[in-house]
Amino acid sequence: MNNYDQAGRRLVNDAFGMNRFLTKTYGWMTLSVLISGIVAYLMGGMYHVSFSYGATIVGFILWFVLAFATQSVAMRNAFAGFIMLVVFSALTGGLFSYVFMMYSSTAIAEAFFTTTIDFAIMAIIGVTTKKSLDKIGTQAMAAFIALLVVSIINLFLHNPLFDLFISFIAVIIFTAFTAYDSQKIKEAFNEYGSEVSENGLAINGAMILYMDFINLFLNLLRIFGLGDDNR
């Protein structure tokens, strides 16, 4: 066998491995969104379940803990990480089930389809572009931190127009994050794929992309739901 045969076979194997990894990552991310949507619809759209203030606080504390713990656990035990991802997705659906009581089905559908198209386009760009998106990622993170500060300030101001402005900026930020994170997930597989659990790495990627998708959706929903009678 000559060197050209070896190089060609290695490239085919690398491409196959990458495709398998990305299929797992985006497949599990899609499953997470589906679980959240079903739980949110059942709790908010069908049974109109509402949580007490205390239950909401406990729920969000658990949500934050799971968000970080899932990624850590997944690298040590992929199966446990996957179960935690499913639980996290269901919890997210429960915590944000209020959207089915606050917004019309039209606004929800418009926000969801817009999010899906936006996410898909940016994910494809992130995976296929050869240009480094590190600068965009750094800028998006800086903007996100600034947005958090502004959002906290607006909690005291209660300015609806300011809230709308925040949502527009957040959409831009998480659109940028989607492309950046997609590229970073691909790079992580290229760099560490042979050294760590492929499934664990895919669960990590699915969690990151899921968060991008959910944040995109919630902020687009605030925009599409402006003036909604169900609010």
UniProtKB/TrEMBL annotation:
Transmembrane regions: 26-44, 50-69, 81-101, 107-128, 140-158, 164-180, 201-224
Main location per the UniProt record: membrane
Top-rank lineage group of the source organism: Bacteria
Short name of one Pfam family: Bax1-I
Listed GO CC annotations: membrane
Membrane topology category: Multi-pass membrane protein
Compartments (UniProt record): Membrane
Keywords: Membrane, Transmembrane, Transmembrane helix
Ligase is among the record's keywords: no
InterPro entries: Bax_inhibitor_1-related
Family: Belongs to the BI1 family.
PANTHER family for the chain: BAX INHIBITOR-RELATED (PTHR23291), PROTEIN LIFEGUARD 4 (PTHR23291:SF50)
Name this polypeptide is given: Integral membrane protein, interacts with FtsH
